[in-house]
Amino acid sequence: MLLIVVVLAVFLADTYAQDTIPQIGTNTTEELMPKLNSTFVKLNKNWSFKLIWDENIAREALQEAIQEDSMEADFVIYRKKMFSKSLRNVTTMEEKVERALREPLKRAQRYSCILFWSRYYYGCNGVFYEKDGRDVLSVACLYRKKLNIGKESPKLAE
Q1: CATH 3.40.33 fits 30-156, yes or no
Q2: What per-residue confidence (pLDDT) applies to 115?
Q3: Following DSSP, what letter does each residue of 60-109 receive, concatenated?
Q4: Rounded distance, CA 151 to CA 139, Å?
Q5: DSSP for residue 150
Q6: How far apart are CA 19 and CA 129, in angstroms?
Q7: Is there a contact between 21 and 82 (Cβ–Cβ < 8 Å)?
Q8: Residue 14: what pLDDT?
Q9: Cα–Cα distance between 154 and 107 in angstroms, integer?
Q10: d(CA 86, CA 88)
Q11: So what's the pLDDT on residue 156?
């Protein structure tokens, strides 16, 4: 019985270690903002003209991208996507972000009537890092009404 508990503990520790993101600012980890601000704005303006960019929410979106379910918002889009290293020289970071968010934003359109008719503040951010010989992009967008901070958030993930 003790052996089973030890094996389970080692397995869980290994799984946790595999899913952690390297610290921002290291050679292998790069924050997406502020370089990709225009990309996030362009992607979101495609489905609602009433969305307003908020730098504070963008900083919180970075925390959400690093640790899923860490921030509260009225609406959350999260995506972690792996890319082969062969795409590194072929695609730009903007194209990778668009690829990562394309499907979650399509799925979010069923909720877009909520965002479309109301004035929501939003911010997007994420990190790009290397893991096991592959490039990984972890990105999140948070949407909230300024008055409704702390509400339960419907979450769209992979």
Answers
A1: yes
A2: 59
A3: HHHHHHHSTT-S--SEEEEEEEEE-GGGTTTS-HHHHHHHHHHHHHHHHT
A4: 21
A5: T
A6: 12
A7: no
A8: 39
A9: 12
A10: 6
A11: 45
Give yes or no for a contact between 154 and 83, defined as CB atoms under 8 angstroms apart: no
Closest CA to 32 of 52, 58, 3, 10: 58
Which residues sit opposite 134 in a β-bridge? 131
pLDDT averaged per 10 residues in sequence order, the chain, 158 residues: 41 42 55 77 74 88 86 85 71 82 77 66 88 85 70 45
Residues 2 and 58: their CA atoms lie apart, in Å, by 46
Lookup result for tokens 């959350």:
76
Please check whether residue 122 is in contact with residue 53, taking contact to mean a CB–CB distance below 8 angstroms: yes
Cα 66 to Cα 60: distance, rounded to the nearest angstrom: 10
Distances (CA, A) of 113 to 10, 17, 119, 125: 46, 39, 11, 23
Per-residue confidence (pLDDT) for residue 32, from 0 to 100: 74
pLDDT at 114: 61
Q: Which two tokens stand for residue 48?
A: 């609602």
Q: Write the Ramachandran bin of 146: left for phi over 0, alpha for psi from -120 to 50, otherwise beta.
A: alpha
Q: What gap in Å lies between CA 121 and CA 39, rounded to an integer?
A: 16
